[in-house]
Amino acid sequence: MGPGASNLKEEPSIVTIVDTEFENSPSRINLLREFPETRIADRVLGPYRQGQDVELPLWIAAHLVQLGYAKFREDDQLTLNALSTTHYKETLPGSRQIPKLPRSFYFQLRRLIKDLKAHEAKDRAKGRDLDKALSLARDIVNIRVKKIASLGASGEQTTELTSNLTAEELALYDNIRQAIEAWRRDILGRETTN
Question: Confidence class of residue 42 from pLDDT cuts 50, 70 and 90?
């Protein structure tokens, strides 16, 4: 077997799994102008009239938004303001709790950063927004990773403790917990870790 062969069996990363799930999840858009009947992949879209609300898989909805035919509903999108609010909740002093995030938080965060990067080239103000978003995102991730690492090291595993974690965070928690348990067994011996 060549060196690359073992890579074929690699499990997809949790980010890939989550992204695939959310890319295919239903998303609501509002039509900004008429959209003629069109075939995309194996499905026929439209015709849609201006002002109409339509629910489509996100990857198709994003394509129509990108082409200027539609806009996402504000409440379905992660905005810089919403990111600031999340940052505020995460950075409250003395909080050892892990606040609940929407299941799609990291997916939406990746999309927000990608969109800001795409607009940065055309508009310097978007560059400032991108810098702010990246700074807030780094803080949120660093704070939550520390709390998840502490939770994983504690050896406690209750649904109550892990219910506020997203799928990506749960995967990190499980990896940390398993690595620490294996390390403890190596150091202390199997019979002393119970």
Answer: confident
